[in-house]
Structures are given as structure tokens and as C-alpha cells.
Amino acid sequence: MLSDNRFRHQQYTNAQPAAAYHLLRADAGPEVDSEEFRLRMRAVGETWRAAGVSSLYLVHGTFVGGDAAGLWLELSRLLPAYGDVLRQLNKQWVDATVGEHGNFTAQFAQKLEESLNDGSERQISVRVFHWSSENHHIGRADAAVRLFDELDNRKDQGRILLWGHSHAGNVFALLSQLLVADSATIDLFFNTAQVFFRNPMTRRIDLPWWPDVWRRLNDPHRVLSADQCDFVTFGTPIRYAWDPHGNARLLHFINHRPREGSPDYLCPFPPTLDDIIHAADGDYIQQLGIAGTNVPPGVLAWRNFLADRRLNQLLQHNLRLRDLHERLKLGMRVPEQGVSLLCDYGTPTGNIARHHAGHAVYTQLQWLLFHAEQTCAYLYGRNLNASPSSK
User: Fold this and answer.
1) pLDDT tens, position by position, 2-60
2) 145: number of Cβ within 10 Å
3) Model pLDDT for residues 214-233, shown as the tens digit of each residue
């Protein structure tokens, strides 16, 4: 039977959260590459292996991918090889410019893989998954379809742990719904977006992974199942609902500092310019990137534009743009599903271009051990170094 919240957007409220949340003071812990760091990360790897985890995927958020404007996708429709090359070159430029500030780097992935597997014969692979990083529905939907394609084609069949920064968490939410959807719901999703991957005039399919994934999602004998995937999000704006049966384990990290006189689970709005410059309340992008803040595809990419409008009716029905200010005033931090860790990472260093209004902290190597140990505590039931205040 179709779940009531299938493709339902999360509701916005300033009421006491129904989902669990905890207030933590983030601890950077020992220096990376120190002996204590090495031993504690080895313990993390042992915990993940005991839980059956065989691979970890790191997924970046909006605007730090290889095609944030969707230009290379349009070129790929005609000249796939050229589009792929330009996408890769653009991503290399982004990585060189942004580094680890709001972006999962190859260096981060390498350090994480080395640390998890230190002294172990049973390896946990760490991969970085790239998507366009466009800030609209069709961009995130394409990422969810591509991610399913990647995961379903894996050679190992152990548990998959996925870490996603910013709107990568909303890519995960869409994936969680698709993994448990019945055939009617799957068909509705792909038919709604069909103009994106099939030219309506020539009927030619120019993005072949879409119909391929459509077929495989409808296959009852497909490889990937919902209960194989564990999700961790970092600073994800509250957007798409998670299907309660589409995520076996779900954890959210949110940079948050409660303000005196306000409930500890809310972020006051509006912030002052000085607040934003110094990330006084934590992650303002997580607060601001909610329904009504999409950047639609350009009208020249008319198929993307049309698919995005149609998906808006499916994924964000009855959430009007003109009500954005009222939604922001609610100051909602805690999603409806999963466990949320409202973490005080302290005052950020550098200017706003470096800390991205409190949004860039999660992907920095200095917090790797903290995030890995909290993942052990909340997803896999082994408290290596956590003492949260529960709510």
C-alpha cells in the first residue's frame, strides 16, 4: 500500500520535535595523524565492520559539483564524451578553489579509508560520489537516480553507509522513498520527469541511466534494498520527507548554538548581518535552504525547466513561494525522521567565504573523528566517546 508520506514534503513547524534530538559540544579530539587519532579511528572501523558495513560513500552538496549550472549536461545530450570531460575539469577546479570547506575532497576520502582499515584484512572502501550539485528538484532527482545506479552495481553486497553534506541529504531522502516505492509510485516519479531524459519531439532517450534505473527499480529481484543503506546527513536543509521504511538508520548533524530565551531546538529568524558573518547561531544555510529557495534551470534548457516544474508538483505540493518568509520565521532545525545531533562546533575561524555562514564545518578533516565516533554511537550502538544530553 502507498505510504501516506510517499513524496510528501516535510512539514514546517516550531513545535517540540517529535523525532529525537541531542545537544552536543563538538570535540575535535586529537590531532589528525596522532597515535590517539589512529587508535580511535581503528576502533571506529572495527565497529563499522561488526555492523556489516563494507563501503562508505561521501556525497557533496549544492554548488560544489562539476555542473552547478547544468551547462555540461546539455552538451552531454549531443556530445557525451565532451560533457563528461568538462564536468570533470570543472570539479577539479572547484576542489582546488574550495578545498575541504563544505566539500568532500579526495584527500578526506583517502585519510578516512586509511584510518578505518588500519591493521584490518577486511577493508571498508571509501568512495566519493559526484553529482551536478544544481539547486533544484530535477538536479537532486537526477542525483538520486545516478546514486541508485552506482549502489545497485556494486560488486560487494555488505551494508552501505552514506554521508551527505547539505542537499546531498535530500538526494538521500528521495532515494529512501524510491527504494521502498511500489510500481505505481515508481512509474509516477519517472513519468513526471520523463521529458528530462526523453526528447518529446524525437522520442530519443539521451540520458540512458534514467530508463535503466526505472526498469531495475521495478525489478523485484534487484540487488539493492532499502535495509542495506544507512544515512548520515550534515547540515541538510529540511526539504523532502524520508520514507519511514526507506532508511534502516538515519542520523543528522546540524551546526547549532541555542540562543538564550529561545527553545534549544530552534534557530531565531531573521539573523543580523553580523550574526551571519560570525555564524552566531550555527549553520544558517541549513536554516535558509528550505522550500522556496530553489534556483530553477534556465529557460534555454527547456526540458530541464519543464521537468523541474512537474517535479515541483509531485515533491513540493502546496508549499507556495510567497510563504517562504513565514516558513523561515519558524526556525526549524530538527527533521521529522531520524536522530538529530545539534552540535556546537564553536566560533568558526576565517571569514564567511571560508565558513559559508556556518555550513562548511562538517567536511573539514579536524572533525572526522568526532563524526565517525558519533556515527558509531547512534547508528551502531557502540559509544566510543560520546556523552550527549538527550531531548
Assistant:
1) 344 468 789 999 999 999 999 999 999 999 999 999 999 999 999 999 999 999 999 99
2) 27
3) 999 999 889 898 889 999 99
Amino acid sitting at position 42: R
Q: Which residues are CB-contacts of 5 (< 8 A; sequence separation ≥ 6)?
A: 241, 243, 244
Residue with cell 550555527: 282
Q: How far is the C-alpha of 362 from the C-alpha of 294, rounded, in Å?
A: 22
* Average per-residue pLDDT for the chain: 92
pLDDT in tens, 157-198: 899 999 999 999 999 999 999 999 999 999 999 999 999 999
Calculate the dihedral angle through the C-alpha atoms of 6, 133, 294, 102, rounding to the nearest 10 degrees: 100
Positive or negative, the CA dihedral 6, 7, 13, 19 is positive
Rounded CA separation 363/319 (Å): 31
Element (H, E) at 233: strand 229-234
The grid coordinates listed for 242 are: 524520508
C-alpha cell at position 190? 519517472
Beta-carbon neighbour count of residue 52 at 10 Å? 14
Torsion of Cα atoms, 224 then 230 then 235 then 240, to 10°: 50
Cell numbers that stand for 349 in this block: 575561524
Closest C-alpha to 309, from 69, 137, 70, 63: 137
pTM of the model: 0.94
CA 55 to chain CA centroid, nearest Å = 17
Contacts with 277 (C-beta within 8 Å, 6 or more apart), sequence order? 351, 352
CA distance 390 to 388: 6
The Cα 78–Cα 211 span in angstroms is 18
Torsion angle of alpha carbons 43, 48, 49, 50, nearest 10°? 90
Q: Which three cell numbers stand for residue 191?
A: 513519468
pLDDT at 3: 43
H or E element that contains 196: helix 194-197
339 has which bridge partners?
Answer: 251
How many angstroms separate the CA atoms of 136 and 140, rounded? 6
Alpha carbon distance 339, 369 (integer Å): 19
